């Protein structure tokens, strides 16, 4: 089902606006993504508000700290009912394992479904010039994404967040079943904003994305439900390789 692949980013700072979008979009979307802005504004209750209506939540807080801190924080996040939580792969294998283990342990102790844990690789707002010159990272972005995806898989994570341009190389390195979640999605003619490594929804699905994440092209549209429907139409005839 195309709608199962669509994750809409609720990048707003209040509950009313978030729930207005959830109510308009629930029939067209697989998951809603709660990021730092909405979580910091409204706290964990917003996850309950969204999931109460039967929708699924990707809690995108991108944890990145020492393994003990991330493990303990991820344990708390596992209580809130999100289906996906994430960490930064740059925190290393011990940190990712700490998150994975504490989330599984907490879910089991509390009798809750175990959320997927995925790792953010190189942010989709980063281009090669910024990666090399500002961040001082050696080599190509693609090689770093592949290496971090393999480390995430070895650390027991369920998948990665990467740009759609790296879908094929991650799929080849990490195999079927490994989830590939791609922001940096822009329908033809949509504003790039701060995104740099982008593809259209249809290109990303054809390349093998498990999920595509779209925020402003839907939430900033005059009619968000119509914008979501148009995107579902664009991906509905495309071979689903994810
Ligand atoms: O590498 C990344 C990781 C996360 N994101 C998040 O996805 C959405 C994209 O929103 P748009 O409005 O469609 O640009 C946003 O919430 C980011 O925090 C990302 O873009 N890139």
UniProtKB/TrEMBL annotation:
Its protein name is Orotidine 5'-phosphate decarboxylase
From the record, give the transmembrane residue ranges. Answer: none
MF (Gene Ontology): orotidine-5'-phosphate decarboxylase activity
Q: Which HAMAP family match?
A: OMPdecase_type1_B (MF_01200_B)
Entry function = Catalyzes the decarboxylation of orotidine 5'-monophosphate (OMP) to uridine 5'-monophosphate (UMP).
| Organism from which the protein derives | Desulfoscipio geothermicus DSM 3669
**InterPro entries given in the database record:** Aldolase_TIM (IPR013785), OMPdecase (IPR014732), OMPdecase_AS (IPR018089), OMPdecase_bac (IPR047596), OMPdeCOase_dom (IPR001754), RibuloseP-bd_barrel (IPR011060)
Organism domain of life: Bacteria
Question: What's the Enzyme Commission number for this chain?
Answer: 4.1.1.23
């Amino acid at each position: 089902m195309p709608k199962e692949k669509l994750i809409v980013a609720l990048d707003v700072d209040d509950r009313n606006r978030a729930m207005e979008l959830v109510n308009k979009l629930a029939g067209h979307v697989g998951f809603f993504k709660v990021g730092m802005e909405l979580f910091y504004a409204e706290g964990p209750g917003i996850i309950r508000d969204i999931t109460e209506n039967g929708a699924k939540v990707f809690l995108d807080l991108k944890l990145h700290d020492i393994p003990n801190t991330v493990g303990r924080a991820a344990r708390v996040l596992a209580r809130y009912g999100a289906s996906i939580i994430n960490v930064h792969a740059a925190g290393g294998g011990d940190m990712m394992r700490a998150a994975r283990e504490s989330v599984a342990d907490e879910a089991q102790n509390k009798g809750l479904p175990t959320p997927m844990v995925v790792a953010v690789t190189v942010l989709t707002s980063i281009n090669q010039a910024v990666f090399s010159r500002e961040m001082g990272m050696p080599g190509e972005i693609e090689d770093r994404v592949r290496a971090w995806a393999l480390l995430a898989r070895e650390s027991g994570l369920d998948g990665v967040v990467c740009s759609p341009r790296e879908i094929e190389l991650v799929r080849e390195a990490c195999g079927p079943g490994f989830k590939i979640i791609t922001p940096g999605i822009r329908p033809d003619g949509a504003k790039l904003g701060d995104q740099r490594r982008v593809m259209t929804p249809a290109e990303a699905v054809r390349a093998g994305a498990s999920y595509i994440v779209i925020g402003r092209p839907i939430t900033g549209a005059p009619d968000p439900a119509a914008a979501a429907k148009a995107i579902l139409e664009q991906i509905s005839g495309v071979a689903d390789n994810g």
